[in-house]
Write a structure and sequence with these properties.
By secondary structure, the protein is mainly alpha-helical. It is built from five helices and no strands.
Amino acid sequence: MRAKITYTVTAAVLVVYFVLVGSRGVLLIQNGTPVTVTFGIAVLILPVIGVWFLWKNTQFVRMANRLAAELDAEGGLPVDELRRTPSGRIDRDSADEVFAERKAETEATPDDWRSWFRLAVAYHDARDTPRARKAMQRAIALHEGKTVGT
């Protein structure tokens, strides 16, 4: 729940920022000189890119949460079997062990979105966020019935 609140607050702050930047771009364009119009257009491009990026990330999070809910309903969510340090952080060796299991499971069933979902969680636990994201994207694509290249 804390992550959802943080994401929502961050998204809201970004939207406010996009509106402020966009209004500055409009003001520059209204000034009417060639230089300010050029800068105004350039400034308006930034919020457009930001909104697109925020939209894509929000869609990704919604789909990942939908898969998690479906997997939870099936009883297939990965169980947290990781050892923790005294401070509460995940023990690296423990994460590597679980990752090896999840990788073997995924290699055995490469067309199953469930195994890719669990692999994404294992990547995340091993602090490999880029690969976790790619594995989750693959799980989403497989769940939607899209063909996925290797």
